[in-house]
Amino acid sequence: LTAGATPEVIREGELEKRSDSLFQLWKKKLVVLTKDSLSLFPDGHKRAKGKELGFGSILKVDCVERTGKYIYFTIVTKDRKEIDFRCPDQSCWNASITMALIDFQNKRAIQDFKSRQEMEQAAGYQ
């Protein structure tokens, strides 16, 4: 990715995130999903500084449950932090995020495999 290039947006819209505060209120966030990350912006504005969750730091999308008009799901990071979200039943944000994450993990696995092969070949030529 060249500097200043904006990654291609797969999906953009609204999600609610459970706050870390004592009251655990649901706060609306503008969410931008790209092939590498999920960015969260407060108050639905991209002007503010967003919080970026890079797929390299995300382990999985977990405990998806449908309750009434919402789908609840949790993003688990590699350092075991759990971030709770909910979205309207019809929006299926959990599926969009899961698909993008699996794509990212597959590409990374292929890259790792290729670079391992190249290293082994290089070692074999010495």
Automatic annotation (TrEMBL):
Q: Name its cellular compartments.
A: Cytoplasm; Membrane
Q: Assign the protein's first listed, main location to one coarse class.
A: cytoplasm
Entry membrane topology: Peripheral membrane protein
Task: Specify the PH domain's residue ranges.
Answer: 8-126
Q: Which GO terms describe its biological process?
A: positive regulation of apoptotic process
Which PROSITE patterns does this one have?
PH_DOMAIN
The entry's function note states: Plays a role in regulating placenta growth. May act via its PH domain that competes with other PH domain-containing proteins, thereby preventing their binding to membrane lipids.
The protein here is known as Pleckstrin homology-like domain family A member 2
Source organism per UniProt: Accipiter nisus
